[in-house]
Design brief:
Shape: flat
Mean pLDDT: 93
Number of strands: 11
Helix content: 25-40%
Strand content: 15-25%
Low-confidence stretches: none
Strand order of the largest sheet: 1-6-7-8
Largest sheet: 4 strands, mixed
Radius of gyration: 22 Å
Length: about 400
Amino acid sequence: MAKSYIFSSESVTEGHPDKVADTISDAVLDACLAQDKNSRVACETLVKSNLVVVAGEITTRADFDYNKVVRNAIEEIGYTEPGESFNAKGVHIMNALTAQSPDIAQGVDEKAAEGKATAEQGAGDQGLMFGFACTETTHLMPAPIYYAHALGEKLTKLRKGKKVSWLRPDCKTQVSLQYNGNKIERIDAVVVSTQHRDTVKHSEIYEFIVENVIKVVVPKELLDAKTRYLVNPTGRFVIGGPEGDSGLTGRKIIVDTYGGMGRHGGGAFSGKDPSKVDRSAAYMGRYVAKNIVAAGLADRCEIQFAYAIGYPEPVSVHIDTFGTGKVADDKIVDAVRQIFSFKPANIIKQLNLLRPIYSHTTNYGHFGRTDNLDALTWEKTDKADELKKAAGL
């Protein structure tokens, strides 16, 4: 008998303090790559009240005004009001960036070094990465995180399009779906907490969000008389963003990936150049898993691989199709190894990652979006036919 359960995923908009930090870190990364594609970047950001701290390790030939990049990123988010402690023109910026450690660099560089096993480009760190895909949505993403992102993106478009005067940048969304086995039955609850101006009543916010956001974004057939709508459940959300809470780069890794439905190795993405397998290999994992599902080899697929610092080949590759595979999982692994290379240098080449594309990824999920396939190359399904043939289907 199939198991009935409820699964929830959350998302946050670009005005959330942690996403402000991610946005700044990726803006710095893109500024480096725009001038020097071989930049090594590990930029982390802290935001609170009127303070922005950028820290980490950067080795680059790029020459630009870091403060200007930070302020432009904040302005694009929408924190521009002089009366707020956190605003693009008024924040104080502390720069604590240094060069990358030469010990790490020699492991990553494509050249021989004493004690290094090969002269190939190695992984920038040890670690494990996951990729995931499933047939729950047309974009082959888990439905709870997909709809949570869509709600946040809708709110941002309404705010930036000046359709609603009281919306402010900070917002969190959450969607709870009821399943029977792997089958979606209904949406049990939708939570939207949005920052707002002090001039609007809670009743107006509630009605607008339910009628013009939730019921527009979420498939109507999944909503029923028992679906709960929890809109600004505290009753008030005027003080938000970095004024209300501190934000850190990399603190929304589950929001960035699969909303908890696929496992996560623990490494964050934003602010890291593609020599860091935390980011590039996770993108590769999504690319492989999505192509496996698109090929019809499985309805649900998770891939895991792991690396040792300075070593080019993954130390392991594992695939789990959760009993949905049309062929055995080991056959899928063999097909994957025929078609894809997991060496860091080859991942970068296959996905064309040495470009200033990372600000496209920061908000509303690094996976599941097809709005810009030139940038989000890991969302393409161009290897599906090859995989199907290699697996014998």
